[in-house]
Amino acid sequence: MIKEVAFIAIAVSDKERARKFYQETLELKPGMTGMDGAWVEYDLGATTIGVGCHPAWQPSRDGTTVAFEVDDIDADIAKLKERGVTFDMEKMETPVCWMAQFRDPDGNKLVLHKRKAK
Questions:
Q1: Residue 3 resides in a domain
Q2: CB burial of residue 99 (10 Å; 0-12, 13-18, 19+)
Q3: In terms of residue numbers, what domain contains 35?
């Protein structure tokens, strides 16, 4: 029935603040924009992250988590910390990866993720 993930949606409360965070702090490049800029899509490989602001759709600290795969997790953690990002979960190791959790300005959970070589 389900073939693939079409997109991952992140609800935000302030479209301008969200765009600044996702585009300047995280350095994502915007793709399609709709609803007068209240919906922005960021294509990352085969996955699309949709960031949207709508009165019927509210952010939640317990909502969706998006894990971003990176090449150099230590350098990227340092870069985000320099930009004022604080981490809820400092870098941790699992049998298959390293990851560190932080939040966007609305409290949505985001993760920097680095797979180990197989």
A1: no
A2: buried
A3: 8-115
